[in-house]
Amino acid sequence: MPKEIILPSLSAGMEDAVIANWLKSEGDTVAAGEILAEVETDKATMEFEAESAGVLGRIIVPAGERADVNAVIAVLLVDGEEAAVLEGYVPDAGIPVPEGSPSAQVVSPTADVVPVACEKGIAASPLARRIAAQKDIDLSELTGSGPRGRIVRIDVERASKNKVTVQAAASPVPSPVSNLVGIGEHDIIPHSNMRRTIARRLMESKTTVPHFYLEADCDIEALLELRAQINEGREKSDKISVNDFVIKAVAHALAKVPSANAIWTDEAILQLKSIDISVAVATETGLITPVVRNAAQKSLGAISKEMKALAIKARDGRLKPEEYQGGGFSISNLGMFGVKSFSAIINPPQSCILAVGAAERRPVGRGGQILLAPVMSVTLSVDHRSVDGAVGAAWLAAFKAALELPMTLLV
User: How do residues 68-98 score in pLDDT, each as one tens digit?
Assistant: First the structure.
């Protein structure tokens, strides 16, 4: 029988995705393990492989459209089957089987075709019920096109489209900001998957996590002198950045104060043993935080090389889930934009995020004298549920000491 191709969960917490591009067309031969499509999740664009060999019989979700996890996105013809076997095929209702066929009574393993009666005795699939509830569709008014008159997803979606059409005819669809007065002409930019996820996570963090903030000014004159010595004679692509020193200093401080390397859960605080640092990278669709793993065990050069590669993949939307999931501590650096200082929002379930500002020459005291030196302001945002103020202060002191005595980062 033909095989339904289901959209799997490609990353933790993924609920839906956009089919960015089909790399195969209907009628093309597909080998097991071959790339079928590119799928845009809330974090990155990932490749989707075929699990079985066959011929791509029908594309259900065209490129550019969104699909839920576990939804049918295409159908694969196997064992030399012809496209004619898909006549009358409806997603969520299973593959039609000709009457009299030995397998006529066999239910497609990927489709739930057993009628499920609700309180009113209406036979509808669980997915159809969920969509109907979301779109405020009365199932009792629908005629099912599934087996034995069962209402399936496509029936609800058709009813929803008809409902929208009727409403549109009655009154024009308002602009999403039509209730705002005096804003003038504007462009409407639809939310991307990443932007929706960022908005949801930041709202949850700021409203549910008890933040407190600790600030410090770091004299980085010695760091800049050491960096100049290290970079002397190096190719531009191999040069060590100030941000590389920051990553290494964060790892050094976490090794000194491991209590700050923690994750909050409702059941317990998880004390992390590995030092994995998430570093915010700006992309066209929003921020993403690739992870430098085991950073305390890596040299400045290794961190620099890895971070450059991760940043390129992040901006190209090619990060793999294991390259951005996890991490126990985050860094957000806006110094390159000239920002003096700021407070970052914690990235749950992590407990800390360090906001790094630009270095600027300021008065500092040395040996009874006041001199001008490059000073960088940093702000540590802390989840008070898992990290106490004293622990946060101890960590920030260790970080400041590492930056101001950068030779300690080389041993």
Answer: 888 889 888 887 777 777 776 766 555 444 4
Mean pLDDT in residue range 307-327 = 90
User: Sheet harboring 66-68: ordered strands across?
Assistant: 45-49, 35-40, 16-22, 66-68
Q: How far apart are CA 254 and CA 218, in angstroms?
A: 17
Q: Give CA–CA dist 296/270, Å, rounded.
A: 19
DSSP of 205-244? HHHHS-EEEEEEEEE-HHHHHHHHHHHTT--GGGPPPHHH
* Strands 66-68, 54-59: pairing kind: unpaired
Over residues 41-48, mean pLDDT: 77
Distance (Å, rounded) from C-alpha 226 to C-alpha 246? 14
Do strands 72-77 and 54-59 pair parallel, antiparallel, or not at all (unpaired)?
antiparallel
In residues, how long is the chain?
A: 411
From 395, 389, 382, select the one nearest 350 (Cα to Cα). Answer: 382
The third-level CATH classification (topology) of the domain covering 211-410 is: Chloramphenicol Acetyltransferase (3.30.559)
Kindly name the residue from 186, 211, 252, 384 that is annotated as catalytic: 384
Active site residue 384: yes
Is the pLDDT at 119 greater than 70? The verdict is no
SS percent in the chain: helix, strand, coil, step 5: 30, 25, 40
Query: Where along the chain do its domains lie?
Result: 1-102, 112-174, 211-410
Cα–Cα dist 51/58, whole Å: 16
Q: Which residues 6+ apart lie within 8 Å of 386 measured at CB? A: 262, 263, 264, 269, 351
CA distance 220 to 82: 70
- Domain at 112-174: CATH code: 4.10.320.10
Write the DSSP assignment of 76-119 as a string of letters: EE-TT--GGGGTT--TTS-----TT-TTTTPPPTT---S--B-T
Query: Can you tell me the distance from the alpha carbon of 126 to that of 68, in angstroms, rounded to the nearest whole number?
Result: 14
Residue whose tokens read 């590995």: 274
Tokens of 291: 């992870």
CATH code: domain 1-102 is: 2.40.50.100
